[in-house]
Amino acid sequence: MNLAAIDLNLLVAFEALMEERHVTRAASRIGLAQPSMSSALRRLRDLFSDELFLRGPGGMQPTDKALALAQPIGAALEQIRGALAPGQSFDPATSRRRFVIAVTDYGDLVIVPALVALLRREAPGIDLVARPITDAAAALAKLERGELDALIGGHLPDSSTSLRRRLFDERFVCIRDQGHAARSAALGIGEYAALPHALFSAAGGDGLPSAIDDRLARQGLKRRIAVTLPHVVAVPFAVAGTDLVATMAERVARRFAESAGVAVLPLPFESPAFAIDLVHARRALADPALRWLVEAVARAAA
Predict the structure, then answer these.
(1) CA distance linking residue 285 with residue 295, whole number of Å
(2) What is the pTM of this model?
């Protein structure tokens, strides 16, 4: 392909369309009129012999070809920007950047509120979009393609093209209705296993065996999952006023204990801590704005 015959500004338009998924917003992002962006999209389609973006209920959806092009085009533009402004800095107080992150329910409840407060104090012009992680592998693929800036949560997958930063360690606790807990403050492992359990399952599963179940099985015990819920915030309110118990991450449990009317109790057995991580692409190391975001998330988590 003869680069001299190609308008490289089309790649900037492609990047904006990939990030915004909307012709008008993409045009505004790079300072074009909407008709000019529509013209750029037509030229991109001719250049790559592909539709690239198709209209759908959620906006312009990228084709497989567009998804395959996103990472190499994004990387090439980053290198060009770095070459043209090697000493560039990032001022969060004046930036109009837009960050897109994906978070688990845990991250949404525990870390995002603190991150939002930090952004409002230090970077009021920055827009933050937080999307749910329903499929960790798919979220990681989006991160690698440049569709996301970071992933936040526990039990996130590894990738050779991304970096992981541990934010803190979390542990599991048991929650129980306050009235029941007042009559029996501590649970033995036998009573814990015998009581009906409520379970959070983001994927809509039916309570497949977990580390908790493995631990009980080693003692010859098995719990009954009486209620499975799709949202973690619903669990404490389902437990309140009933004979149910539930096992939850401690910070989420304590956040809702008072408003839901549940008590937080230690588990009647040792349960290993698990990490809450920030995962970001290696490109963040070369982008002052993304480096700032990584540090902002770490400070919010602290």
Answers:
(1) 11
(2) 0.68
